[in-house]
Amino acid sequence: MKRLLVVFAVFVMSLVALPCFAISESQEKAIVDKCNEIKEQLKAVQKDDARTRVHLGGRYETILTSFMMPLNVRLLENNLSNVELVENQNSFAETKSLFNNDYIDYQQRLEELVALDCKKEPANFYEKLDKVRQKRKIVGQDALKLRNLISKHVRLVTVLRGKI
Amino acid sequence: MEEKKVEDKVSDEKKQKKKLNKGGWNLVILGIMAVVIAVITSGVSLLIYHNSGDIYLDRSRPGFLPDEEEIEEENNDDDEEEFKFDKTGPIDLTVLEKYLEELQAEVDAVNAYEKPFEEKVLSDESFGIPKTE
Fold first, then answer.
1. A105 falls within a domain
2. Do A107 and B53 touch (CB under 8 A)?
3. CB distance from B94 to chain A under 8 Å?
4. Whole-complex ipTM
C-alpha cells in the first residue's frame, strides 16, 4: 500500500513538474493588439510556402524520376552499378516522401492556427504558434537533407565520370 | 345501365389521377435521392482532397493564385524542353557530361531557395511579439 502511495505521489509530482507553456503579460497584450496583423502575416506565409513547396517538390520529383532513377538503371544495364548511387537514390526517395508528409502536417497546424481567435485565446494561440514553428523547422530540415543528397549525387557522378 | 357507365368512367378517371400523383411523387423522390447522392459523393471527395494534403498543393484556391510574374516565369519554363535521361544505351564520358550539365540546371533551381522554410519567418520578432522575460 505504501509503495503504491509513493508511486502515486511521484506520478503527481512529475505531472506538476512538467514544464507548462508560459506566456508573459506583455506577449499576451501584443498578440491581442496585433491579432489582425499577425493573421495577415500568417496567411502570407501560407501563400509563400505553397509556392515554395510546389516549386521545390517539382524539382525533387524531376531529379528523382528523370535523373537518379534512369541513371541507376542504365548503369546496371552496363554492369557499372554503383552501390553508393543506389543508396543515395533510396535515401532521396525516402526523404522526399518525409518532406511531403511533414509539409502536410505543418500546413494542417498552420491552418488551425490561422483559424484560431487570437484576441480571445492569446495563450493558446502562442502555444500553437510554437508547435507550428517546430513543424516548420522539420520541413526546413527535410529540404536541407534533400539538398545535401542532391549534392552527394552530383559528387558521385562526377567521380564516376573521372573513372570512365 | 347508363348510371353504371358513368360510375365506371368516374372511377377510371380517379384511378388515372392516382397513377399520375404516384408518378409525380416518384419523380420528387428520385430528385431528392440524386441530390443526397451528389452531396455525399462531393463531401467524400472534399474529405479526401483535404486529408490527402492535396489541398495544400492546390494553388488555384482563392488567395493562393500565382502572381502575374510567376505565371510568366512558368510559361517560359514550359517553353523549355524537359530533359529525361534515357534508361537504355551505353555509358561514356559524353553521356555523363551531358547528364551533369542538365542536372546542374535542376540543382541551381533548388539552390535558388537559399533557406527554404526558414524559422525566422515565424519568429516573435517578425510578429512584433516581445521575447519571453
1. yes
2. yes
3. no
4. 0.81
